[in-house]
UniProtKB/TrEMBL annotation:
Coiled-coil residue spans: none
Residue ranges occupied by any ABC transporter domain in the UniProt entry: 370-604
Topology term for the membrane: Multi-pass membrane protein
Segments of this protein annotated with the region Disordered: 1-34
Transmembrane segments: 50-73, 93-111, 164-185, 191-211, 310-334
Subcellular location per the Swiss-Prot or TrEMBL entry: Cell membrane
GO terms for MF: ATP binding
Species assigned in the record: Haloechinothrix salitolerans
Keywords: ATP-binding, Membrane, Nucleotide-binding, Transmembrane, Transmembrane helix
Protein name: ABC transporter ATP-binding protein
Main location: membrane
Domain ABC transmembrane type-1 span(s) in chain numbering: 54-336
Organism lineage string: Bacteria, Bacillati, Actinomycetota, Actinomycetes, Pseudonocardiales
PANTHER family, A to Z: ATP-BINDING CASSETTE SUB-FAMILY B MEMBER 10, MITOCHONDRIAL, ATP-DEPENDENT PERMEASE MDL1, MITOCHONDRIAL
Amino acid sequence: MRAGQAEPGPLATTNPDERRRPPPRAPGIDPDQSKGWIKRAFPLLKAHRGVFMAAFAASLVTVVAMVLFPLWLGTAIDEALAAPSGQRDSLARFVWILVAITVVGVVAAYFSRYLTLRMAYSLEFDLRTLLYRHLSTLSASFFDRVRTGELVSRANSDVRAVQMLLAFGPMLIVQFGMFFLALYFMLTIDVGLTLVALLSLPAVFVIGLTMRKHMFPVSWLVQSRLAEIATIVDENVSGAQVVRVFGAERRQIGVLARAAQRLRWASMRLVRIRATFGPLMQNVVRVGEAAVLLYGGFRVLDGAIGPGDIIVFLTYLVMLQAPFAMLGLLMMLAQRAAASAHRIYEVLDERPEIADRPGAFDLPVCRGEVELRDVRFSFGSDQRVLDGVTLRVPAGHTVAFVGATGSGKTTIAQLIPRFYDVDRGAVLLDGHDVRDLTLRSLRQHVGVCFEEPFLFSASIRDNIAYGTPGASDDDVVAAAKVAGAHEFITQLAFGYTTVVGERGYTLSGGQRQRIAIARTVLVNPPILILDDATSAIDVQTEQRIHDGLRQLMHGRTTLIVAHRLSTLSLADRVVLLEGGRIAATGTHQELLTTEPRYAAALAHVTDEERIRAAQLERERTVTPDVEWRPIDPDHLDEEEML
Ligand SMILES: Nc1ncnc2c1ncn2[C@@H]1O[C@H](COP(=O)(O)OP(=O)(O)OP(=O)(O)O)[C@@H](O)[C@H]1O
């Protein structure tokens, strides 16, 4: 059943194999943490310097076209319209020049925008891919520490914040280029009028900056409240059954309504800020225009400038206020991007605790002998989860672990493929310390099936072939048969091509477990760990799986964590764990007759499991007791809303 190298068969639909994903273009960020965030992003930026230069050139052409247009318009008014009626043919020449400038400007603006945004989105892609790649190298202890929501936020909104600065930043810099060019032409026309025209711009800048300063924290608040609502909705959808079972619908609506009120309050704050500053900014420019008209009018009457020059100044004024109004936004975007980059770098700077050591070697052939030598382990705290565990499982043997909940069974299962490293002692595979082997080689030899298997939103076939993407359809079907899954899969409307919902929740717990077993069976590892992997499967089906597994286990080292007597009977030897220590070992029958703690543990385990499950259900539904009540949006308690 070992996987062949053939291409995926015709059953293949969506393949979760990440090897198909194109690699990021850029090498990564600068590892020197003493550098600023933009400097650290240089290797990423450098990878796009071609597009950047092209975007910059196109933007320069756009700016020149934008500045030249009013200048020629003014000249046209002053020269062509003022000319005697017989000599007005020159107007047509001006019109053609204006058309040419417009065409060049439009084409250049297209390329400027297209290339700038292309660069920004490519950088976003690079950053996101780097982040994802790095996350996939991090150890289990990192994921124990960091909340999933936080990581999703880093991969989404933080990457987006950096991207926005990179998209807007160059555009705004180019707009400032336009400002200096226009300023030069204005000064050559009339210095006094230039000063009058520029008077309103500092006010535009100050108003813009004040507006952004007010908006910045409130828009963060809106974002976080949106995320809060998303979490509540997600929990209500995922835990819909629990809500119904405990009749907590009204309470949940209350929780959601409260969160929605808080979002509405924050959104209205944002609206108020926009409503206050937006019109103010627009009208300051109007005042500037009036001043230009007044002073410019006197200058025309004095004969110092032509009426066309007033048109030039008025057009420049409207054009120039945009970068000033946006400068505040740029500053805020820069602040936000710096904070976001810091959070992204925090993940990228995280070194995997579990990684290949220098000199780590591959173990090409594995017999399957597993040994735990005086193993001590804790999950980062003082509380020892395993304490002095010594155990040797000869190649080809089947050992079952039994013990009360929390006695350390799953922890042993996690130490063998090195999800965590021991604090003292060693875990050995064929006599080699697992820390001396490459992770890739180690994990190729150890297949693990957990109680709560994770399935991808892909077809059943692809889920089974996840560890061996090149497996043939026959191999997939054979693995499904061993796992007792073939029957129910063929009864589904689309059989093996059925796409399972998120995390495989469209299947029952037992069906998911069987697919997970098939997935591991297909990899055909010399060491198989089944951590309560059949707990959700009915006794008859489990019996059939055992028959299949019995054949499969032949000559294979198998470690089973189980509570059911039927599962334990598969084992050559049973290990009884108590508080992270081995309390007794022997065959199932031996322990049953000679070890009272064993019989007690079996009964105890089942009772405790039941109590723990009920406790978990209760914990999940304990939410603040907030009843839904109609709200008066005009009389909200400000302190509560903050
Ligand atoms: N990721 C973790 N971080 C911190 N503590 C953990 C973690 N996983 C398990 N523990 C703790 O380690 C101890 C042993 O857990 P383990 O899952 O190995 O027990 P178990 O015997 O498999 O229990 P069960 O039968 O309930 O699955 C428990 O006290 C548990 O709370």
